[in-house]
Amino acid sequence: MSKELKTGFVLASYAAHEQRSRGRRFPEASSSYRGEYQRDRDRIVHSTAFRRLLYKTQVFVNHEGDLYRTRLTHSLEVAQIARTVARALDLNEALVEAISLAHDLGHTPFGHAGQDTLNTCMRDCGGFEHNLQSLRTVDELEIKYADFPGLNLMFETREGILKHCSLRNARELGEIGLRFLERRQAGLEAQVADIADAIAYNNHDVDDGYRAKLISVDELRSQALFARGYEDVLQKY
């Protein structure tokens, strides 16, 4: 039995199956105990770039309080949401988790302000794209193995990490950038990770903003979705 089925969950026909994968950039022997996407997830978790997310800003900088999200806690929340959705849809949970955990590895310090500043500084060189930097991190910058540069992740994991890419840069990436030139979507697992990212930050950024007293309950109640939930809580408690 395939190692990706040993969890007890049978993948749907439209899920990413290891047997149909486009594989790794550099050939490797398979593991006796873990599926290929599980190995990707584990390599990401043990990478230095993943640990560094602890001190990268989500919205509030690290020293403002130990309860605010960082890029690390954000990535963990994205992975949890994505796995839940993947399980409901019979998709490949290990793949969606690997993509979710790695999606912000190339993000700058100081949140989006840092990204915008670096993009301005690099304008003459094509700008800065944090998704492309995330791919560069796992492909080149992580030094773990003697046989190849980077983490040597599966194609589908790398494709999911590269959520956005300019056409200019996509032309330089070969097969991994081809879908941007052909205007194709990535696999379903990558799309689930993308949606989980939006669900996570749309919720926890509001949560952190409320904790920081930048927004009030009355301001939140002006939004219909929050107002409905607020009324439900009042009626119940």
Rg of Cα set: 19 Å
What structural class should be given to the helix and strand makeup?
mainly alpha
- Judging from the principal axes of the Cα atoms, what is the shape? globular
SSE pattern:
HHHHHHHHHHHH
Total count of domains: 1
Q: Quick check: average pLDDT?
A: 91
Taking pLDDT < 50 over at least 5 consecutive residues as the criterion, the unreliable ranges are none
The overall strand count is 0
Q: Portion of residues in helices?
A: 40-55%
Percentage beta strand: under 5%
CATH topology: Hypothetical protein af1432
Second-tier CATH architecture: Orthogonal Bundle
SS summary, helix count: 12
Highest CATH level, the class: Mainly Alpha
Per CATH, the superfamily is Hypothetical protein af1432
Biggest β-sheet description: none
End-to-end separation: 50 Å
Which structural traits does this protein have?
single chain; 237 residues; mainly alpha; Hypothetical protein af1432; 12 helices; 0% strand; globular
Draw up the topology in text.
Blueprint: H1 36-45, H2 48-52, H3 71-88, H4 93-102, H5 111-121, H6 130-141, H7 155-161, H8 167-170, H9 178-181, H10 188-211, H11 217-221, H12 224-236
